[in-house]
Amino acid sequence: MESINVASNLAAVTKRIQTAACQAQREPSSVTLLAVSKTKTLALIAEAVAAGQRCFGENYAQEAAQKAKTLHHLNLEWHFLGPVQSNKTQLLATHMDWIHTVDREKIALRLNKQRPNHLAPLNICLQVNISGEASKAGLNPKDILALADSVALLPNLRLRGLMAIPAPADGLAAQRAPLRALQAVWKTVRTAHPHLDTLSMGMSADLEAAVLEGATIVRVGTDIFGAR
Fold it and tell me: Is residue 207 a contact partner of residue 192, using CB atoms and an 8 Å limit?
């Protein structure tokens, strides 16, 4: 089995972000690298932390909560990226700092109710099905504003922005098209909610396209920790 040099991989991904940001005439610091650590060991996460990584993304509620509890002393920032099931909202509301995948008012209401009072409001991104795929979660873009209006009223949640996982595409231009569409939806929602500051888009294969189209968070797993 090929060994993984997490520190070297992080440096390479960071360099890609910096290069794309410069091409887009953006400050590289305006893009947060989220290391997607789902199914990865605590030892690999520890390597990333030692290399300076602070923000981690998980897809499975119980695994996410367990890692957050175990590594609580490190004061890391935990982002949930998977589908939110009603029976897992308590775990997520208690242990996560961000949820990127809210696409139903019912889920938002449960997260708001179950967020412990001693914690800061839970940061929320609304998931957009930007490519219109039947197999993908997320709202139709035309329905986003209504959910944003609802979430913005919930005191234990903080609406931050939008998230999407576009259909895979080959070539920079094809990758940029749905991401540009997501940015347009984000700008529309910001007319009603000007405090929104987050566009969560871009993964290992398309992070350059995402940075060029305004991503503020890119979610990279494979190029940091290796294939699943």
Answer: no
